[in-house]
Design goal:
2 copies of one chain form a homodimer. By secondary structure, chain A is of the alpha/beta class. The first copy, chain A, has 15 helices and 24 strands. A 6-stranded mixed β-sheet of chain A has the order 7-8-9-10-11-17. In chain A, strands 1-2-4-5-6 form a 5-stranded mixed β-sheet. In chain A, strands 13-14-12-15-16 form a 5-stranded parallel β-sheet, sandwiched between helices. In chain A, a hairpin with an 8-residue loop joins strand 8 and strand 9. In chain A, helix 5 crosses helix 11, helix 6 packs parallel to helix 7 and helix 14 packs antiparallel against helix 15. The mean pLDDT of chain A is 94. Chains A, B: It comes from Butyrivibrio fibrisolvens.
Chain lengths: 533, 533
């Protein structure tokens, strides 16, 4: 959920506007977007959104936030292509001002001037930003790697980093994702060589390659290998089809004529003339590969002799689902290859040192990655001679103030996660989440009582119904005993003249909760409902 | 959930009886034990449980299964110590026959003779089994590694593996966990050397070491390092205290006098004289380390200057929780060390080859590990010259039949996961789990209607209550509209003479479900309750 506001007096620019996917305890939530109260409070100052690249964690929240903060969006070509696809889905194309920016181009946004600098990453058209302001120059790398032999376009513009560095840079905000990893990140082209070898070694089998939907260069290389070995290619998985479609229109990917075919044409070709490029490399249960593995894909089933290549690495947290898919594929007889067919899109330690040496910032502000990665980059900065007190590890919402006197963390703006569930944005809060967690744990037991308000008599019920608690046939006796207990206690309470519904509800909650805990050692949610008759 | 039955005519022996922890979709489940229908159907043939080592996935289901299948239990000393602790908790000590077996010792169980062979593993007293029967010898390695310089006791008894191999072994069941990893597994002693270096380098700070509760040798080495650098040791975390307590009584661990202290005595020593050995190396939210990291531990809080060592590696699936704990520790100012302070307890590829070369089995049956690991061992066996058709990858329940004519998979016995929730064993089935998943996703909407059966009149309600669906203040209007809708539809249905309660319930379910989906794009569980008045 990357979003950073830069402010100089009355000008604010926003770098990136990403979403994040829900944590395991955010039950039922579809996605998470940032709280932009600070921007809303200063809406007249917001000059625009400047986007570094087209990954979901950098562009995904735009359609939600633009509805509240309608400012122009600046991005490079493929990034803008992906943003526009989102804006179309949300009906925001007409209301959103947009400008496609070229590398080396400057844009003026209030007191700021922003330059887009070519970098490399696991998506085409990634940019670093040089942000010029009266207070000094800030360089923001975005997510990046150093690739001297990229598949598409130019290598990272190291000369320009050096040139700007020479002018004197106030602060460097540098990608920390791989700051724990020693050495250099390998070029994307090395994967092409591996793919070539694998295609040569598996001439007889159908080849299925799973990778990240947005990695256009990877798809390009798979297509190249397929073309080389005279195979037809099917792209499968909605998100990948979308990205490749946009990339083709923008000519970020070159597909030889008659290479891409429709999935329904597969049957016209023998197995060893087919390549299927698919989503699902993270073991996502609804993605195409998982459906193939579990036999739920309508058009492709895995069979003995298939070769499945994972051109990816599991994102932390996905290891188990990936292994489940690998197991399923193997049980269906496929050969599964998952080693050394991937390179990272992020700079490792030596690459980070290179950027620091070109930019030579006064202040270091590690960005992107877990807290542990920020700490690892701080250590790198220290080794490069940046004094400890000149490195700032920011937490969400921290305000880093930089002026002639120095730099300091000075206060906080409101931040937080806004949960999106269905079409509801922000209407699922902590109470609802806690209830879902409770329901998930031990289910719910509902006790309905019909009470005549006038006579304070129980006229119907108690009726006790449960869901997600215990299989009913096993527990008829339990529910009967509970019903008797509630009946006795409520009748007794009413006879004592207690006619305060909240009091009766609490009574039912307590005695039922205690009874169930004693009998089952479970704590379902207890929900008493009183019907006024 | 390891459990394997060996049968020869009227004799059955059971090797291991483990539990597993619930998958992510088994909401609210505490643990999972195996379905032992096959043993119950053949209960008079069951001669005993033979246990290879004391890990939960090998002993954890014993107290549950022994209640149904009361047969004697055979295990080595520490393994039995850990089993007895469980039996005491379940009140099964008096009813369970037990025998502590020494390495090299044979036990006779019906037509079987079982020999316990010394191995190494991440828990003391692990054993392989040589199972002698009229059909031939089967060697079962259990979980094992080859450690020439173990911390406690002898190295694996390779001579005996060779000697038995010379006799001619029918089948080898060999641990596959690390079958994808090339090379050899390092000795546990190498960790001792690393710990020594770390203790030397961090002389000024308090040291907290997190590791697996049952890894007695690891705890021994941490205690050794503490003693060496004149520090007092606190063991924290219930499961670890239990294991160390048992290990001390059985003299599997040697603690110098006055080294272990009580947690309340910590305050009497300066930081650099303290070592805290703790559970929580997997980021488990309730474990001691996680509570320290989040500031919820009653007696220990993390502070700047602390050194926290993860003497562990994240088990697949736990990466994210471990990273969360690491982040929290770092945010509190601790230095966190998590690289190269752990070795695996399982044999890597070259170790597996060694065992195959000593045992030289006719048939290979890879065991332990994911399916992908079993496939990796099959490939190792193939490289060692075991014909493909002589290697059997079994799925749970598969019957592998071996006789003079050969070996084959021949049929299946019933298997499955029996879910334990609270004190309920097996009373949470698919229906309950599906309900919990549904409830977790979008909550529940309950509609209560009081209907007079005689007059078929709605006398109270509809009352609509929701939990885990949407925060109520935001949705008053939604609930009001839903109430009106249900009122109209039910009144209309009753007026048309529909008095069949299931029909009315379905009607409410349908219209309410559709209305809510249209308004929110969510699908809460809809639960109509009709009260007969």
């Amino acid at each position: 959920m990357n979003i950073t506001a830069f402010r100089y007096e009355d000008s604010i620019i926003v770098v990136d506007c990403g979403l994040s996917f829900p944590d395991d305890d955010m039950l039922g939530i579809d996605l998470v977007i940032p709280d932009v109260t600070y921007l809303l409070d200063n809406i007249d100052k917001v000059k625009g959104f400047v986007i570094t690249h087209g990954h979901e964690d950098h562009i995904g929240a735009l359609p939600y936030i633009l509805k509240e903060v309608n400012a122009p969006v600046y991005a490079t070509r493929l990034t803008m292509g992906l943003i526009e696809h989102k804006l179309e889905e949300h009906g925001l194309m007409r209301s959103t001002r947009r400008k496609v920016v070229k590398f080396g181009q400057f844009i003026n946004l209030g007191d700021f001037r922003v330059e887009f600098i070519k970098t490399n990453h696991s998506i085409v058209d990634a940019a670093a930003l040089a942000i010029y302001s009266p207070a000094g120059i800030v360089v923001h790398t975005g997510d990046f790697k150093v690739d001297y032999t990229p598949v598409y376009g130019d290598p990272i513009d190291l000369q320009r980093f050096g040139e700007i560095g020479k002018k004197g840079v106030l602060a460097l905000l540098c990608d920390s994702t791989n700051a724990e990893r020693p050495g250099f990140t390998a070029s994307e082209k090395t994967v092409g060589a591996t793919l070539d070898t694998l295609f040569r070694e598996h001439k007889k089998s159908r080849i299925i390659v799973a990778t990240f939907a947005s990695n256009v260069d990877r798809v390009q290389q798979i297509i190249n290998a397929a073309y080389q070995y005279d195979r037809k290619v099917v792209v499968e998985g909605r998100s990948m089809v979308t990205v490749i479609d946009i990339a083709q229109k923008l000519e970020c990917i070159k597909v030889p004529d008659n290479t891409l075919i429709d999935i329904d044409e597969l049957k016209n070709y023998p197995d060893n003339k087919q390549v299927i490029i698919t989503t699902g490399s993270q073991g996502e249960s609804m993605a195409a590969l998982s459906r193939m593995a579990s036999g739920q894909h309508k058009k492709i089933s895995i069979k003995p002799g298939d070769t499945v290549i994972f051109s990816s690495t599991p994102i932390p947290g996905n290891e188990k689902s990936v292994t489940n898919v690998v197991n399923e594929l193997m049980m269906k007889g496929a050969e599964v290859i998952f080693q050394d067919v991937h390179v990272s899109g992020h700079a490792c330690q030596e690459d980070i040192k290179l950027i620091y040496n070109l930019v030579k910032p006064k202040y270091a502000v590690p960005v992107h990655g877990e807290y542990r990665h920020l700490v690892a980059q701080k250590e790198i900065a220290r080794k490069l001679g940046i004094p400890k007190e000149n490195t700032f590890i920011l937490k969400s919402g921290d305000i880093l103030e930089m002026d002639a006197k120095g730099a300091r963390i000075h206060g906080k703006v409101p931040t937080g996660a806004v949960l999106v569930d269905g079409i509801g944005v922000g209407d699922v809060g902590n109470v609802v989440l806690r209830d879902r967690q409770r329901l998930a744990q031990d289910g719910i037991v509902i006790a309905v009582l019909g009470i005549d308000k006038g006579s304070a008599q129980l006229v119907s019920g108690p009726t006790i119904v449960s869901r997600g608690f215990v299989y009913v046939k096993e527990s008829d006796e339990l529910i009967e005993d509970a019903t008797d207990l509630v009946l006795d206690e409520v009748t007794e309470a009413l006879s004592r003249g207690i006619t305060d519904w909240p009091k009766i509800k609490n009574l039912v909650k307590d005695i039922l909760g205690e009874f169930i805990w004693k009998k089952t050692k479970r704590r379902p949610m207890i929900l008493p409902i009183i019907m006024d008759n």
